[in-house]
Amino acid sequence: MSLEEIKELMIELNEPAFRAKQLFEWVHKKGIESIEDISNFSKELKEKIAQNAKITCLNLKTKQVSEDGTIKYLFALEDNNYIECVLMRYRGTKSKKRNTLCVSSQVGCAMGCGFCATGLGGFKRNLTAGEILSQIYTVNNYLKIENDDLMVGNIVYMGMGEPLLNFENVLKSIRLLNELLGQNISIRRITISTCGIVPKIVDLADLNLDIVLAVSLHAPTDQLRSQIMPVNQQYPLKVLKEACIYYVKKTRRRLTFEYALVNNFNDTKEHAYVLADYLKDIFSHINLIPVNPTVTEKFQRPQRVKIQDFLEVLTSSGIEASIREERGTDIAAACGQLRGKVVE
Asked: Is 186 helix (H, G, I), strand (E, B) or coil?
């Protein structure tokens, strides 16, 4: 619940206005898992709140730790659906030291991208704003138990699902994360990833938020992109580019593009030149991601020399590009590997 919604609840309960801020902080800053945990409310008040609202709780089913320190959590929801989120601990130089959480926005995914494991089980439903936020609050509670000196400070909506198809709940969760009385996470430290839902990219541009928008491209031509991304049939590259240019002009923010390199599919120098031509008019940076293995094993990553050659074509063409740091691949926590499934 937002602060305004909690204020309305307190009015309905005939409670003083200051109780709303107190409750908001207990839920969104301290991350309590039960109304019973509120130490400065009377038993009567807690009972009244419990009759009119509830705190979304996640049930941890499994926790996997990668060799690089990345942690993947599998959570059960109240309706026995499952979601995953991934904690990435960066411990480089002082300026880069941070905890980033990759959160899910849906149970499953309807987009059906060929290289992504999330869509294998189909789409179940959207997550509520509370279920999205609970991923952050729950992981923060684990970090407190472990005496980690950093809480989650960066959020990437790159887990299960297409965030822009759960537009309102994703935006509500972002605004609540940005609240001064809550987690107070800078909106510039929040990234939304999309496979290219053009009308929602335009809507997001009109909101003019300071978030980072990452667009999954993965191929330089419609013929190739349609083979691995069904969304390209509805929103082909020309239409997507127009939306991206509109977004940059409206927000004056640099776009990020994601490009999964697949061996002998989209990884040649010729592909790189076509991609550079596509990106030349867009203020952007492109992340090259050697495709990660999934249960289908259909797609394989190129050899390192081909990846480097691809990068050099882009940079020599004036395109800002880099190879994304690989994290969590050994526990199926990397890009395209999340499934939200209990493996017996």
From this structure: coil
What 3-state class would DSSP assign to 80? coil
Q: H-type helices in the chain, by residue range? A: 3-12, 18-28, 43-52, 129-145, 167-178, 198-207, 222-228, 231-234, 237-251, 269-279, 304-316
CATH number of the domain residue 12 falls in: 1.10.150.530
Please indicate, yes or no, whether residues 48 and 63 belong to a single structural domain of this protein.
no
Q: What is the pLDDT of residues 131-160, one digit of tens each?
A: 999 999 999 999 999 988 899 999 999 999
Torsion-angle region of 208 (φ positive above 0: left; ψ -120 to 50: alpha; else: beta): left
Record the tokens describing residue 328, joined without a space. 């969590």
pLDDT of res. 144: 94
- The region that residue 69 occupies, defined by phi over 0 for left and psi between -120 and 50 for alpha, beta otherwise, is left
Choose one of 33, 52, 71: the last residue of a domain. Answer: 52
Residue 328 banded pLDDT, cuts 50, 70, 90: confident
In the predicted model, what is the mean pLDDT of residues 116-127? 85
pLDDT of residue 94: 47
pTM, entire model: 0.93
15 is catalytic: no
Work out how many domains the chain is built from and give that number.
2
Catalytic residue among 102, 116, 244, 335: 335
Q: Does residue 3 surpass a pLDDT of 90?
A: yes
Expressed as residue numbers, the domain containing 278 is 59-331
342 pLDDT higher than 70 = no
Assigned token pair, 81: 């659906």
User: Packing angle between helix 198-207 and helix 167-178, nearest 10 degrees?
Assistant: 30
Is 271 found in the same domain as 202?
Answer: yes
339 — pLDDT class (breaks 50, 70, 90): low
Domain membership of residue 342 (yes or no) is no
Active-site residue 335, yes or no?
yes
- Which one from 15, 84, 131, 162 is the annotated catalytic residue? 84
Contact 156, 334 (CB under 8 A): no
